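User: My instructor asked us to take a sequence, write out its structure as tokens, and then describe one feature of it. I'm not sure where to start. Here is the sequence I was given:
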Amino acid sequence: MASKYLACLLVCLSGSAWAQIDDLYNADVTEYQDISNPAEAVKAAEGQWLAFSMPVLEGTRSPCCWKGKWGVMGEVGCGLAPGHTSYGSRSDSPLVDEAIVYASIRDGRVHKLRVMGTHCPVDGNGEQVAWIGEVDENAGMDWLEGIARADDSDGALYALALHRSDGAAKRLYSLARDTDKERGSEAVFWLGEARGEQGFNFLERLLGELPRGDRRREINFALSQNDSPEAAQLLLEISKSDRDPEQRGEALFWLAQEYPNEAKGWLKEVIAAEQDEDILEKAVFAVSQLPGEDSSRMLLDIARDKQAPREARRQALFWLAQSDDDEAVAALADLLTR
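Assistant: Let's start with the prediction itself. The structure tokens for your sequence are:
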């Protein structure tokens, strides 16, 4: 009798669920009411897809699937079955306030996890879907963090990156600090890419906490993707005085890539004063990555400057030889025949 009562309490007609899962179609949907923690729905969703909604950061573009060349891609919608389309969002994707998390449950654990925008058509491929609607904020993030720590699916990290709660950034920080290389590296990236000022603060903390090595160096790229005004300044400080020479050199590259106007003057100073040949090499390479004519002009100046370090001049000649700038190549030929 108790089990019948529970079934009546939890299961509603699938028709009422259709309207709540936005553009999901071709699926057998069962709605479970009064479940606010995804972990508590895993048993009921065994062999099915567990689905729930979560609030996303302001300015989030609806994640969906695409096909064709990137410049002319058409949105085709996603499917719960494996597909051969690209996944993500573009600058012209619709803005959304919520996203839907779909998790395939097999043997009591998450087998696959995808995040779909509420404007993305999703073909259920005839699958059974257990829909629990909105979930408790902390319980949902706890569940996503647990998945990110337990397996190699990047879907849970992406979901945390998009989650509207400030607590999501703290979880990404913990993952960046505590987990293995792949998980931790992706968490570092999402702190920079998605979490703005709060993400910057955590990246700055990680810079002081992580030991020298690849994970710490990945903070450079994350900073280059961060939209807070302090990110460029911290990257500049890393390039000037960080204790890891490799990290300094890589910071120069990302400064040139993302903040070329700020980088030009500092690159000149580095090349004039730096004693470490590896950093000099990376500084000249960073110059070669500056946009437009700035690159070839600066490389020529370095190659012509007899006061510049020999290694810097040698590297400048090398990168000039790779240039597609006809004037730069002509100037290089003139320089070499003098």
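For the description part of your assignment, you could build on this observation: DSSP finds 16 helices and twelve strands in the chain. Try explaining in your own words what that tells you about the chain.
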